[in-house]
Amino acid sequence: MTETPDSTGTPPPADAPGDQATPASGPAGASAASAPPAPTEAAPSPPAAQASSQPAEQPGDDAAPARRSLAALRTEVGKAVVGQDAIVTGLVIALLCRGHVLLEGVPGVAKTLLVRTLSHTVSLDFKRVQFTPDLMPGDVTGSLVYDARTAAFSFRAGPVFTNLLLADEINRTPPKTQSSLLEAMEERQVTVDGEARALPEPFMVIATQNPVEYEGTYPLPEAQLDRFLMKLPVPLPERAAEVDVVLRHAAGFTARDLEAAGVRAAASVADLDAGREAVARVSVSREVAQYVVDLCRATREAPSVSLGVSPRGATALLSTSRAWAWMRGGTFVTPDDVKALAEWTLGHRIQMRAEAELEGVTSAAVLQSVLASVPVPR
Q1: What DSSP designation does 10 have?
Q2: What is the residue-averaged pLDDT of the chain?
Q3: How many H-runs (helices) and E-runs (strands) does the chain carry?
Q4: Span 103-159, pLDDT tens digits
Q5: For 11-62, what is each residue's pLDDT tens digit?
Q6: Under DSSP, is residue 355 helix (H, G, I), strand (E, B) or coil?
Q7: Cβ-contact 99, 204 below 8 angstroms
Q8: Which of 52, 80, 266, 300 is a plausible cystine mate for 308, CB 3.0–4.6 Å?
Q9: 8 A C-beta contact, residue 361 and residue 352
Q10: Judgement on whether residues 200 and 224 belong to the same structural domain of the protein
Q11: pLDDT (tens digit, 9 = 90+) per residue, 64-93?
Q12: Which letter does DSSP use for residue 179 in this model?
């Protein structure tokens, strides 16, 4: 079972059991004094957790309490979801960046429970929509409803008007309904009958999809994939973690009662706001910015790629790298921060050529090659 942070909110070492399940989700940690170690050429990987020592706090760092509160989320989420600390770290990074997340994992790995628990620990409003083939756009955004008493139409808000929207199995609904989220994700508003209605702040879409069952599904178009800040693969738990899950259920744990599991609010919207302001103060050198651009441009030139990373992907990678740098206690972005977030942030933005897919070439392999070939600034 993955260890949980101690009472100071400090996460476990990156090499703790259960932190590295697969090459896609196997993370690299960072110490308080240094960035996460550069991924190997065989397996570039995102950060699973902060180091065993507490992140270094600079004198006068007024955002240090917010960092500790957000780190403590791992402890609280771990009371309900076992062995997914890396994914919790990714979701916190997305919250700090005001981005959206696509969770991909087989059924039964607690994706829905993970999102519900996260909303509980940050005291955010949460709504879930089960995407089905007969779901209509108005079922997500809301629609005008005729009121016979007033003989007028009134707007009935849909579930998108919330802080955390879980779009469960988003690829099971047709593109028309999928596209109903495009404006909400990009503009943070919904337009119905020509009137724009602002969504609550913070607002985040967390969508899920099953990577092994494609019958009756509608693959997400590139334009919508590009609007997800990160794609996080949710792995099956390690054996020890799975045993812990079974024992917890045997002891009476129920996913519908988080209070009984002892899950409490560890952070607040104020902590998120303070964290975002602190992330905006993390400095970025011109050399690091050029490195981010060079990585993204290299994906467009790969012979097995039909669509590489867009400039939006470059800005997304810089945003997630800054958030990770702040979470580990840094004041500036290093190339290792960029490498650590590259797979989560860029992998879903790369479209492979059909012949490359037939040969078994994946976007992860392309990223490995790019990270190994693009010169790292010194």
Answers
A1: P
A2: 84
A3: 15, 11
A4: 999 998 999 999 999 999 999 999 999 999 999 999 999 998 988 888 888 899 999
A5: 333 333 333 333 333 333 333 333 333 333 333 455 654 433 455 566 557 7
A6: helix
A7: yes
A8: 300
A9: yes
A10: yes
A11: 899 999 999 988 999 999 989 999 999 999
A12: G
Number of structural domains the chain divides into: 2
Which pLDDT score is estimated for 219?
A: 87
Q: Which of 89, 348, 324, 363 is nearest to 231 (CA)?
A: 348
Query: Among the three residues 218, 246, 269, which one is the final residue of a domain in this structure?
Result: 269
Measured between alpha carbons, how far is residue 299 from residues 101, 322, 371 in Å? 21, 21, 10
Query: Would you state the pLDDT for residue 24?
Result: 38
Residue 40 lies in a domain: no
User: In this predicted model, what pLDDT tens digit does every residue of 322-338 receive, in sequence order?
Assistant: 999 999 999 999 999 99
- Edge-to-edge strand order for the sheet containing 204-209? 126-130, 164-168, 204-209, 101-104, 230-233
Determine how many CB atoms are found less than 10 A away from the CB of residue 155: 14
What are the backbone dihedrals phi and psi of residue 126, each rounded to the nearest 5 degrees, phi first?
Answer: -135, 135
Burial letters for 234-272: b for 16+ Cβ neighbours within 10 Å, e otherwise? bbebbeebeebbeeeeeeeeeeeebeebebeebbeeebb
Pairing of strands 189-192, 195-198: antiparallel
239 three-class SS: helix
At 339 the three-state DSSP class reads helix
User: What per-residue confidence (pLDDT) applies to 56?
Assistant: 57
| Domain of residue 318, CATH code | 1.10.8.80
